[in-house]
From TrEMBL:
GO molecular function: kinase activity
Domain Histidine kinase, chain residue ranges per copy: 20-243
Protein name, per record: histidine kinase
Domain of life of the source: Bacteria
Residues shown, of full length: 269 to 529 of 655
Length: 261
C-alpha cells in the first residue's frame, strides 16, 4: 500500500509536469501551424514544396490533438481553487498516512486550534502534504518522528530563506518536520529543481518538490526549508489566509451538509 501511495504520488507529479509541458508545447505548435499556413500560401508555382508543407501541416495537427489529449488526461485544466479548510486537509492526509507510512514512523498531527481557510485546489493541497510526507518517510529508513502541523504566522516581510519572499501579513502555515537524515547545504540548495534527486535510479524522479514549489507559489504562497544533516528537515509552507469559512471541509465534501431534520 505504501508503495502504491508513492507510485500514485509520482504519477501525479509526472502528470502535472506533463500537463505544463503539453501546455507550452501547444503554444509552440500554434506558431508552427501559423507559419506553415503562410508558407503554403506563398509557395506559388512550386507544387512539390506545397505538398511537403501540407505534410507538415498534417503532422502539426496530429501533434496538436495529442497534446490536447494529454492536457485532458493530466487534468491540468481541471485545477479548481476553492476555500479549503487546512485542518481538514491535514486530517485527511494524516488518515491516509496512518494506513500507509509504516510502524517505524511516529506520526504526530497538530491541527490549528482555530479554523484556517486557504484558497487552493484541494487535490493539490493533498499532493503538497503527501509529497513532503513521503520524502520525510524516505529520509527515516530506520524510523523517526514525522510532524504535520497547521497554524498561523505573522510575517514582517523581511524573512530570509523564503522562496519566494512574501509581503508582511498574517499567513496560514503548514509545517512538515522529520527527524531523518537531513541534507547537506549543496543538496538543500537544489531540492526544488525539477529532476534533482539523490535517490537511486527508479526510486526518485526529482519531481516531488518541484511540484510542491509550483503548487505553493501558484497559490500565492511561499516555502521555507530548514535542514540539518544528520538531524532532520523542516519544511514550512505559507499560504495567504482567506477571511471566510471554508467551502470545503474535506477533499470534495461540502463543509455544511444539507440541514433539515
Ligand atoms: P525525489 O523524492 O524523487 O528525489 P524530490 O523533488 O521530492 O524528488 O526531492 C529531491 C531530493 O531532495 C531528494 O532526492 C532528497 O535528496 C532531498 N529531500 C527531499 N526531502 C527530504 C527530506 N525530508 N529529508 C532529506 N532529504 C530530502
Amino acid at each position: 500500500v505504501q508503495e502504491r501511495t508513492q507510485q500514485a504520488q509520482r504519477m501525479e507529479s509526472l502528470g502535472n509536469l506533463a500537463g505544463g509541458v503539453a501546455h507550452d508545447f501547444n503554444n509552440i505548435l500554434a506558431i508552427i501551424a501559423n507559419y506553415t499556413e503562410f508558407a503554403i500560401e506563398e509557395t506559388g508555382d512550386r507544387p512539390e514544396v506545397r505538398a511537403d508543407l501540407v505534410q507538415v501541416r498534417t503532422a502539426v495537427e496530429r501533434a496538436t490533438n495529442l497534446t490536447r489529449q494529454l492536457l485532458t488526461f493530466t487534468r491540468g485544466d481541471a485545477i479548481q481553487p476553492r476555500n479549503v479548510s487546512l485542518n481538514a486537509a491535514l486530517a485527511e492526509v494524516q488518515a491516509m498516512l496512518e494506513r500507509t507510512i509504516g510502524e517505524h514512523i511516529h506520526l504526530v498531527a497538530r491541527p490549528s486550534s482555530v479554523p484556517l481557510t486557504v484558497h487552493a485546489d484541494p487535490g493539490q493541497l493533498h499532493q503538497v502534504l503527501l509529497n513532503l510526507a513521503i520524502n520525510a518517510r524516505d529520509a527515516m529508513p530506520e524510523g523517526g518522528t514525522l510532524v504535520l502541523e497547521a497554524n498561523t504566522a505573522d510575517l514582517d516581510g523581511n524573512e530570509v530563506n523564503m522562496q519566494p519572499p512574501l509581503p508582511a501579513g498574517r499567513y496560514a502555515r503548514l509545517l512538515i518536520s522529520d527527524t531523518g537524515e537531513g541534507m547537506p547545504p549543496e543538496v538543500a540548495a537544489r531540492v526544488f529543481e525539477p529532476f534533482f534527486t539523490t535517490k537511486p535510479r527508479g526510486k526518485g524522479t526529482g519531481l516531488g518538490l518541484a511540484t510542491v514549489y509550483g503548487i505553493v507559489t501558484e497559490a500565492g504562497g511561499s516555502i521555507n526549508l530548514y535542514s540539518e544533516h544528520g538531524v532532520g528537515t523542516t519544511f514550512r509552507i505559507y499560504l495567504p489566509l482567506v477571511d471566510a469559512p471554508a467551502d470545503l471541509l474535506t477533499g470534495g465534501q461540502p463543509s455544511s451538509p444539507p440541514r433539515g431534520d
